[in-house]
Amino acid sequence: MKIKISSPTLRGYIQVVLYACGYREHQYTPTSEGLELQDTTPLKENGDLIVKIAKTVEERGIKGDKPKAPIIPLTGNEKASYKKVAQTLGLQENAPLSELLDRYFQQKVDNKFDQPYTAPTALIPEFYEYNRVLGYADSKRKSETYRTLDLHTYVLGLAGYITSYLGRIKTSGASWVEVHLLPTHGGAHRETLTNWIELYDKIRFSLKGITPATSLLLWLSLKTHYEGTVEILALNPGRGQNPTTIWATFNLDLTRSSKILGDVDQYADTLTRLIEDSLSPNHSNITLRISQLIYEAINGVKPPEELMYIGAREGVLSAIKEVNEFKLSADDKMFARYSKLVKHLYYKLTKTSDITS
After folding, report:
1. Is residue 225 assigned to a domain?
2. CB 65 within 8 Å of CB 37
3. pTM of the model
4. 260 occurs within a structural domain
5. 67, 170: one domain
6. Of 236, 255, 274, at which residue does a domain stop?
7. Which pLDDT score, from 0 to 100, does residue 165 have?
8. Same-domain pairing of 271 and 349
9. Which of 222, 255, 288 is the endpoint of a domain?
């Protein structure tokens, strides 16, 4: 099977499908236009895992309710294309995405399809941006050309989109973005050795925010223990005639932080609360400061002693209040827990430094 890939985002979605279905590097070959699969057996045998994910997202609902139509964001023109794909697969035109994927993986993987389909901008959000770049020669023509996909690429793109979906995050006011996690070829090159279905299950619907990126990196490392590089893609979903566009992207190397945070013993819950508070729009300054110092200490930007200092200071303040029989507030108790966590990380980091030096 030849897969023509027209954008970096679409490539990421396709890679998600291949890794989720258990492909190994010898089972596909990069080409000038995309990828060529030597064997479609992994798609047929493991596609049901992706169908299960699609059903889970449908039941949860991207908009908070059970959808009656495809859960991928589609503009008016894109809806017509989706209906054609569903009908080609022998389904009703408004079939849910889970049904479309199930029919494809169970019966249609090896079929030949010649008709081109207009891709949803959620699969190729970069090309909408091309139309807005001043001086980009023939940008609209190129954008329209690359928006045409064959059925296999179209469906596999949708499969990667729903598999990589983590949830929606509020950015400001009534604005939300959809967040996806995509594998890359950077870092420790563990892409094809990782169980991506389990990785996504650990973090889907539990993300509290995506900024600052340093806290996001720590959260992903703590939850997944993945030693490699990932891309976080935040999308403004299309509505009406407005296409899906990219809100932000982050390339995060989780390797070192996953090694350090992979085993934080009894402090895992405290660290989770600390990081998630720093990702919240209503974060406290102290959690933001401590989480930033944890990131900097782990990655050698700041010495571990600076992390130890701020943690010890907050702990001493709480201890002084306790000795003087002041009633400790919830914040005081929280700072005391953070102090113990920081002390644990300090000794862990200094021990790691001694071993590697």
Report:
1. yes
2. no
3. 0.87
4. no
5. yes
6. 255
7. 96
8. yes
9. 255
Report whether pLDDT(231) > 70: yes
Range scoring the smallest mean pLDDT among 119-133, 141-155, 265-279, 308-322: 308-322
Q: Which residues pair with 316 in a beta bridge?
A: none
Phi, psi of 293 (to 5 degrees): -65, -35
Q: 207 and 285: one domain? A: no
The per-residue pLDDT for 333 is 64
My answer on whether 251 and 270 are in the same domain is: no
User: What single letter denotes the amino acid at residue 284?
Assistant: S
Residue 157: how many other CB atoms lie within 10 Å: 29
What is d(CA 287, CA 293) in angstroms, rounded to the nearest whole number? 10
Residue type, 222: L
Tokens of 26: 């010898």
| Structural domain count, the chain | 2
Q: H helices of the chain, where? A: 8-20, 41-60, 76-88, 97-103, 126-130, 139-146, 151-163, 196-203, 213-224, 255-261, 268-279, 285-298, 304-323, 330-356
181 token code pair: 């996690």
**What digits encode the pLDDT tens for the residues 72-113?**
888 888 999 999 999 999 999 989 999 999 999 999 999 899
What per-residue confidence (pLDDT) applies to 316?
43
128/62 Cα distance (integer angstroms)? 23
Residues 250 and 283 in one domain: no
pLDDT tens digits, residue range 132-141?
444 444 444 4
Same domain, yes or no, for 230 and 306? Answer: no
The answer to whether 302 touches 293, Cβ cutoff 8 Å, is: yes
Are 238 and 332 in a shared domain? no
3-class DSSP state of 252: strand
* Under 8 Å between Cβ of 180 and 161: yes
Which range marks the domain in which residue 159 is found? 2-255
Task: Determine the Cα–Cα distance for residues 180 and 158; give it in Å rounded to an integer.
Answer: 13
DSSP helix/strand/coil, 250: strand
